[in-house]
């Protein structure tokens, strides 16, 4: 009888169907024909960055499959790419670009000025959902006099026009389905996208520039941060584009098999007030809330030693950055004094619309206990990302909310009075417009520094902290970008040593 | 028999149509807009309107319903609002993960549950019979995702024997990697499912062991094994088959949580994403496919039961379920 | 030589309480014995004990010896299932009370009879088929019944089929555990007559268990009365009927008498 | 007798224990719920019996508070599922041919639809909250209860003494009250006890997927999800909530087993 029992149990545990292959690293090959496994939480919505492709499509295709007239390098400089040279008219209203010759799309079609014209028009078209559309407001006319020249005329001067062009993908004008296929001029061809799983790029041998240093790159997408980290721990992927789970870091720091890179990030976490609505239409109340929160403790509790404190919207990588972390210092007494001066001596309560994904619920819980110290009661209302767009972003039906802002140079949004946080300061609006029409970069920088200082003075929002930009990679990988500006992730430089 | 098939088939289609219409209305009532998935933090109102046009959520409800029904009749599940990819092919990709996962786990659960359940019944008076029954009691109380997490912790992170998740890019073109990727998920689902199956097999076996016809067979010279084999098995199979039908049906979409733990691109996670983004074609496509599958499984389980038990065959009309 | 010798048989339950205590009786080949008593008197348990088919949890002690004509005696109490298996069917078998549950609901009646014959007489193929049909014919059932399922025939027909299966094994001893109690009165008489004829034709010994003295009187010569698992009285049918000395027997008799008087006005 | 009592008592003790913990957490917990003073991911032992989570909150406190959500969801879902299910089941039981088939077909579709996904639709509609979770789980349960009730009602209606009562003109409500309910009620209660366990597990899964009751509600499911990313450095976080879930659900199932034998002794097996 005993024999049968043990037999039955071993049958149950004997994994008859398991082909226990050893943990097969995805790319046995190394060197120039390696396949690089990249892990990320940001799967594209679709493949067209003017059709709502989202942050994921920039990460996967920007600079890898698609290229612009100019390229934004990993440390924030704008350099020529498909444009070899350009001239600007005296009044700064006419730009003439010289296109690189001998460049072909992956489909074999030659790159012409017509494609460049088509690509720019696509970004500013009525139904374009490109995040950069508004910054091309001043563009009045686009012409392609010949195959290798593009002329753009502006209504008003726009000093960051060339910088903004680094976001415009030069696409093949004949590609009818940009959301599902990709035909660019970059070092990789788009080969396959299995939604919810992987997106694969293969080296394009007909590339005009220097060849990519690896044969194939596969983006593996995860919805859960721990699953992403586990994948790296078990060598299914070689690198994580941006580490979102702070606590998982301890598994990699101090582990010789992995390298943790702390780069410069542009992602800010905001407690955004609705500046139109009481009590947050009152500067003193906003500054009181700002000073009541121990931001240092919040940052440490979530990110430990990583991340930075910031006092305003501008991240360190922007040319007009100044460290304003102490403009609204953590000072509970100051907060209480400000509250009494604003007539809220015995405190008040407000509803905080909190997106339901990390880290917002945890931050909300922290803010609730911090603000309780100054008599302010926070009602946490958890909403889905989708609801955030409808309730907060479009209807502006909120008192305060939590949200992260990913892009660089987005301090300019404080110059737009009917943006969702409703900050109205005509002086700031004027500085922002002047900065864009500045003739020199220095003029632009000094104007935007004033904007940055002013919104900090007014505590237009509470800038809680700057996310760290952590790229974790296996030790035998090199040549990968660490800053990932505006969620770009150039993979053509990545090499994988043997072993 | 044919009359039964026609009636049952008719019921199948009716409940399917009912489910689709109810689903369409329910989704439209939900707050939020599929267009939001296409927007970024700094979209202008004009861009929001453009997104709604692309998605079609700006058109009046009846019009949306007519276009949708038209597509459904032509079995064209339409295109995802968000990815603009056709929903059909993506579902088949996802089925290539969910179906093998569900079926293998189901088979493994049966392979575990039938012998263990049988032994548990045969030794119901002994201590090891009682321990198995207690273990199965524990088994049905354990959350699936917890089992998954523990298996990942032990086998993937600590022992590095299995991948911690994901499905190979080549899919089933590389069967070795695909099987290895599915091992822990299959084990997770199978262990929990076998726990509840053991209890059903045990109670069905006990019913048979206490039956008079088994005693008659032994009185006519059959050994207990032969009596069980010849008479017991078929009689125990009836109730167990109906439970298996329900269990397989719920496993089909029920692996959502396991797909999340193991980051598997299955049908469940596709539906979760669809719901989060109000991607109506994806939601309707997945639910259409899963409802069809579940009702077909129920139909087959019913059929199997009829074949097994002649008593059901005669009263084919008014049989009360 | 006795076909069946039961000596000091005691059957106790899980809690040690004796359901049958120190029962002794004997049965020679061809002899018929009636075992009667109220329900719960342990008569059915005794029948099961003879074949070693006591339900799990019950333990038998004392001795039960079965000795087929010209065969070795076998001690049933404590015997391994393998040895008892050779006795069941060939030497002794049982016909149970509830025909609806006694037959496998999912198997055709012909097959169930067939498996019994195949196992005990080793017949195969057409010989087996003929044996089945003749066994059924003997109990008055035609070949349509052979293809039918138990739920498709009446209670009486089901019991006849069960008897056919038992008798077809050609046992030396047939034990009938209240075979007619579950049938309605009209069918009861036919089945009793059938049993009587079959046992006589084959010279089988019969151990007939019932709570109804009138029924036992029709098929058995000697009677053993049980109360709470103890044998309180035994003797020929006429002795027990005419001069019952134990109160239990008298109670059984009076209830039987009313039934008989009502039935056919025979002298009580 | 004793074996039947044993599983009922054992189950009641387990569920009662967790009920007491939940009630106690209303009055006292080792640390304040939102007290983040403890060190991050401290191992069990010392001031923090079970250690701390990544925010430095005491794990034992979170566990106690989590018991509230588990019990509230379970009981709430059983309340909604029971009443709705019973009503629908009775209606189906008494309904005529095509209406009966219609209801049965609808129930099949709802049951074929996994609880978790039904919950997601409700959460997508009403937003993630304790109310949404309870409503969703209650609705899903009501379909299962309705199907069971329908079968039981049909079986009772077929009984002779009930047909006799109906033909002798007793009014429907009296038939239901006197004959149907007493017979249906015992099996239903057993099923509801089982459904309680399933609802608790479903809530844990919902919270694990980030769809359960949001903070400041504390749910075991979410504790497991949060502990998952720090499993290598702080495995305790993964073990405690899981065990708590198992204890509660095993307790509920034991109560169900005990009730089943008490309510329907005939069905009791010598097991």
UniProtKB/TrEMBL annotation, chain A:
Database matches in Pfam families: SBP_bac_5
Keyword Signal: yes
Keywords: Signal
Keyword Signal: yes
PROSITE patterns (alphabetical): PROKAR_LIPOPROTEIN (PS51257)
Domain Solute-binding protein family stretches: 79-408
Gene3D superfamilies: Dipeptide-binding Protein, Domain 1, Dipeptide-binding Protein, Domain 3, Periplasmic binding protein-like II
Bilayer-crossing regions: none
Signal peptide extent: 1-21
Name of the protein this chain belongs to: Peptide ABC transporter substrate-binding protein
Organism, scientific name: Plantactinospora endophytica
Higher taxonomy: Bacteria, Bacillati, Actinomycetota, Actinomycetes, Micromonosporales
TrEMBL record, chain B:
Location in or out of the cell: Cell membrane
InterPro entries in the cross-refs: BPD_transp_1_N, MetI-like, MetI-like_sf
Domain ABC transmembrane type-1 span(s) in chain numbering: 95-301
Family: Belongs to the binding-protein-dependent transport system permease family.
Primary localization class, coarse: membrane
Top-level taxonomic group: Bacteria
Residues annotated as transmembrane: 95-120, 132-157, 177-198, 240-262, 282-304
Organism phylogeny: Bacteria, Bacillati, Actinomycetota, Actinomycetes, Micromonosporales
Topological category with respect to the lipid bilayer: Multi-pass membrane protein
Protein name, per record: Peptide ABC transporter
Keywords, alphabetical: Cell membrane, Membrane, Transmembrane, Transmembrane helix, Transport
Pfam families cross-referenced by the UniProt entry: BPD_transp_1, BPD_transp_1_N
PROSITE patterns the UniProt entry points to: ABC_TM1
From TrEMBL, chain C:
InterPro entries the UniProt entry points to: AAA+_ATPase (IPR003593), ABC_Ni/Peptide_Import (IPR050388), ABC_transporter-like_ATP-bd (IPR003439), ABC_transporter-like_CS (IPR017871), P-loop_NTPase (IPR027417)
Record has tRNA processing as a keyword: no
CDD domains: ABC_NikE_OppD_transporters
Keywords tagged on the record: ATP-binding, Cell membrane, Membrane, Nucleotide-binding, Transport
Pfam families registered for this protein in UniProt: ABC_tran (PF00005)
Transmembrane segments: none
Domain of life of the organism encoding this protein: Bacteria
UniProt-listed SUPFAM superfamilies: P-loop containing nucleoside triphosphate hydrolases
Domain (ABC transporter) ranges: 3-253
Principal location class: membrane
Membrane topology value: Peripheral membrane protein
Compartment(s): Cell membrane
Entry similarity comment: Belongs to the ABC transporter superfamily.
This protein's name: ABC transporter domain-containing protein
Organism: Plantactinospora endophytica
UniProtKB/TrEMBL annotation, chain D:
Major location category of this protein: membrane
Keyword Magnesium assigned: no
Location of the ABC transmembrane type-1 domain: 67-256
Residues spanning the membrane: 69-91, 103-124, 130-149, 188-211, 231-256
Keyword Repeat: no
Protein source organism: Plantactinospora endophytica
Protein name per the record: Peptide ABC transporter permease
InterPro entries assigned to the protein according to its UniProt record, in alphabetical order: BP-dependent_transpt_permease (IPR050366), MetI-like (IPR000515), MetI-like_sf (IPR035906)
Record-stated family: Belongs to the binding-protein-dependent transport system permease family.
Mode of membrane association: Multi-pass membrane protein
Pfam families named among the record's database cross-references: BPD_transp_1
Protein location: Cell membrane
Keywords, ordered alphabetically: Cell membrane, Membrane, Transmembrane, Transmembrane helix, Transport
């Amino acid at each position: 009888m005993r024999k049968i029992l043990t037999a039955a149990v071993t049958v149950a545990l004997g994994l008859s169907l398991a082909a226990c292959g050893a943990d097969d690293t995805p790319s046995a090959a190394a060197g120039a024909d390696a396949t690089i496994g990249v892990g990320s939480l940001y799967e594209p919505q679709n493949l067209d960055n003017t059709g709502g492709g989202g942050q994921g499509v920039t990460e996967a295709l920007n600079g890898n499959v698609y290229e612009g007239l100019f390229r934004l390098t990993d440390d924030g400089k704008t350099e020529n790419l498909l444009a070899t040279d350009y001239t600007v008219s005296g009044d700064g209203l006419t730009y003439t670009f010289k296109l690189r010759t001998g460049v072909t799309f992956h489909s074999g079609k030659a790159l012409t000025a017509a494609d460049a014209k088509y690509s720019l028009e696509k970004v500013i078209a009525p139904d374009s959902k490109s995040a950069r559309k508004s910054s091309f407001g001043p563009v009045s006319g686009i012409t392609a006099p010949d195959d290798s020249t593009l002329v753009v005329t502006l209504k008003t001067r726009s000093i960051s026009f060339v910088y903004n062009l680094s976001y415009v993908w030069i696409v093949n004008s004949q590609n009818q389905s940009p959301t599902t296929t990709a035909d660019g001029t970059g070092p990789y061809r788009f080969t396959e996208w299995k939604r919810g799983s992987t997106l694969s790029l293969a080296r394009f041998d007909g590339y005009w520039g220097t060849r990519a240093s690896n044969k194939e790159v596969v983006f593996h997408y995860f919805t859960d941060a721990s699953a992403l980290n586990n994948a790296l721990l078990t060598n299914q992927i070689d690198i994580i584009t941006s580490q979102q789970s702070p606590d998982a870091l301890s598994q990699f720091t101090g582990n010789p098999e992995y390298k943790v890179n702390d780069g410069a990030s542009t992602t800010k976490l905001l407690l955004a007030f609705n500046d139109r609505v009481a009590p947050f239409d009152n500067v003193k109340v906003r500054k009181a809330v700002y000073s009541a929160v121990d931001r240092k403790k919040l940052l440490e509790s979530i990110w430990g030693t990583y991340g930075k404190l910031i006092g305003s919207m501008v991240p360190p990588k922007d040319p007009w950055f100044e460290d304003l972390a102490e403009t609204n210092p953590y000072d509970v007494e100051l907060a209480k004094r400000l509250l009494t001066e604003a007539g809220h001596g015995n405190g008040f309560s407000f509803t905080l619309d909190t997106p339901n994904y990390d880290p917002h619920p945890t931050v909300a819980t922290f803010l609730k206990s911090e603000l309780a110290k100054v008599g302010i009661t926070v009602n946490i209302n958890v909403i889905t990302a989708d609801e955030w767009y409808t309730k907060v972003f479009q209807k502006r039906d909120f008192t305060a909310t939590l949200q992260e802002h990913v892009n660089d140079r987005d301090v300019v949004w404080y110059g737009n009075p009917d943006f969702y946080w409703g900050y109205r300061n005509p002086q700031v609006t004027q500085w922002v417009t002047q900065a864009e029409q500045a003739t020199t970069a220095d003029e632009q920088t000094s104007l935007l520094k004033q904007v940055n200082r002013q919104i900090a003075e007014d505590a237009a929002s509470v800038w809680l902290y700057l996310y760290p930009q952590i790229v974790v990679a296996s030790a035998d990988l090199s040549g990968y970008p660490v800053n990932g500006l505006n969620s770009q992730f150039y993979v053509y430089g990545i090499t994988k040593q043997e072993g | 028999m044919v009359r039964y098939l026609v009636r049952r088939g008719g019921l199948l289609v009716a409940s399917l149509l009912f489910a689709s219409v109810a689903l369409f209305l329910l989704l439209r009532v939900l707050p939020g807009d599929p267009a939001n998935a296409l927007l970024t933090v700094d979209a202008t109102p004009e861009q929001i309107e453009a997104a709604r046009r692309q998605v079609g959520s700006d058109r009046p409800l009846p019009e949306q319903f007519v276009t949708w029904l038209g597509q459904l009749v032509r079995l064209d599940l339409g295109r995802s609002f968000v990815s603009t990819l056709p929903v059909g092919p993506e579902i088949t990709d996802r089925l290539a993960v969910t179906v093998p996962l569900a079926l293998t786990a189901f088979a493994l659960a049966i392979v575990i549950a039938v012998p263990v359940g049988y032994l548990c019944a045969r030794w119901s008076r002994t201590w090891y019979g009682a321990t198995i029954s207690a273990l199965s009691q524990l088994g049905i109380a354990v959350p699936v995702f917890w089992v998954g997490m523990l298996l990942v912790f032990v086998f993937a992170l600590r022992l590095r024997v299995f991948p911690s998740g994901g499905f190979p890019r080549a899919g089933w073109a590389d069967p070795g990697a695909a099987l290895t990727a599915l091992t822990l998920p299959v084990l997770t689902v199978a262990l929990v499912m076998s726990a509840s199956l053991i209890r059903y097999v045990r109670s069905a076996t006990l019913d048979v062991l206490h039956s008079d016809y088994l005693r008659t067979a032994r009185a006519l010279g059959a050994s207990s094994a032969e009596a069980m084999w010849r008479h017991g098995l078929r009689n125990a199979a009836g109730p167990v088959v109906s439970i298996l039908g329900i269990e397989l049906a719920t496993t089909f979409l029920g692996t959502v949580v396991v797909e999340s733990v193991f980051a598997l691109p299955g049908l469940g996670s596709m539906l979760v994403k669809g719901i989060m983004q109000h991607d109506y074609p994806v939601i309707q496509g997945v639910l259409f496919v899963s409802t069809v599958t579940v009702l077909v499984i129920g139909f087959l389980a019913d059929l199997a039961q009829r074949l097994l038990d002649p008593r059901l065959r005669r009263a084919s009309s008014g049989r009360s379920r | 030589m006795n076909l069946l010798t039961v000596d000091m048989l005691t059957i106790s339950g899980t809690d040690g309480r004796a359901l049958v205590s120190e029962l002794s009786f004997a049965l020679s080949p061809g002899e018929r014995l009636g075992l009667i008593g109220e329900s719960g008197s342990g008569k059915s348990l005794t029948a099961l004990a003879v074949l070693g088919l006591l339900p799990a949890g019950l333990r038998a002690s004392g001795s039960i010896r079965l000795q087929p004509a010209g065969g070795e005696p076998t001690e049933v109490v404590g015997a391994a299932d393998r040895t008892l298996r050779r006795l069941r069917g060939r030497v002794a078998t049982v016909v149970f009370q509830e025909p609806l549950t006694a037959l496998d609901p999912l198997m055709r009646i012909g097959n169930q009879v067939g498996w019994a014959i195949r196992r005990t007489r080793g017949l195969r193929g057409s010989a087996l088929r003929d044996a089945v049909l003749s066994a059924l014919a003997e109990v008055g059932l035609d070949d349509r019944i052979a293809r039918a399922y138990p739920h498709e025939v009446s209670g009486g027909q089901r019991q006849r089929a069960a008897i056919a299966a038992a008798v077809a094994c050609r046992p030396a001893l047939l034990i009938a555990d209240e075979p007619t109690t579950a049938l309605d009165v009209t069918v009861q008489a036919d089945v009793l007559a059938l049993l009587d004829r079959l046992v006589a034709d084959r010279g089988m010994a019969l151990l007939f268990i019932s709570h109804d003295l009138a029924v036992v009187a029709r098929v058995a010569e000697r009677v053993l009365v049980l109360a709470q698992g103890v044998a309180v009285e035994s003797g020929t049918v006429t002795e027990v009927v005419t001069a019952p000395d134990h109160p239990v027997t008298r109670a059984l008799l009076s209830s039987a008498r009313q039934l008989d008087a009502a039935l056919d006005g025979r002298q009580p | 007798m004793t074996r039947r009592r044993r599983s009922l008592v054992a189950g009641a003790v387990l569920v009662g224990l967790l009920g007491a913990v939940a009630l106690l957490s209303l009055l006292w917990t080792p640390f304040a719920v939102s007290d983040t003073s403890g060190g991050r991911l401290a191992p069990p032992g010392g001031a923090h019996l079970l250690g701390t989570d990544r925010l430095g909150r005491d794990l034992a406190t979170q566990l106690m508070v989590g018991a509230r959500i588990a019990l509230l969801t379970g009981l709430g879902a059983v309340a909604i599922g029971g009443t709705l299910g019973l009503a629908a089941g009775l209606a189906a039981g008494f309904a005529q041919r095509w209406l009966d088939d219609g209801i049965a077909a609808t129930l099949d579709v709802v049951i074929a639809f996994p609880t978790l996904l039904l919950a997601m639709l409700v959460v997508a509609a009403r937003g993630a909250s304790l109310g949404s979770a309870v409503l969703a789980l209650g609705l899903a349960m009501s379909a299962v209860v309705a199907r069971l009730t329908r079968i039981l009602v049909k079986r009772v209606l077929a009984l002779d003494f009930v047909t006799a009562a109906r033909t002798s003109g007793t009014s429907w409500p009296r038939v239901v009250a006197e004959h149907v309910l007493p017979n249906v009620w015992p099996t239903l209660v057993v099923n509801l006890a089982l459904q309680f366990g399933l609802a608790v597990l479903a809530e844990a899964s919902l919270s694990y997927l980030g769809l359960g009751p949001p903070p400041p509600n504390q749910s075991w499911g979410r504790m497991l999800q949060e502990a998952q990313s720090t499993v290598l450095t702080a495995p305790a976080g993964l073990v405690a909530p899981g065990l708590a879930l198992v204890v509660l659900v095993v307790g509920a199932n034991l109560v169900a087993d005990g009730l089943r034998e008490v309510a329907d002794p005939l069905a009791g097996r010598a097991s």
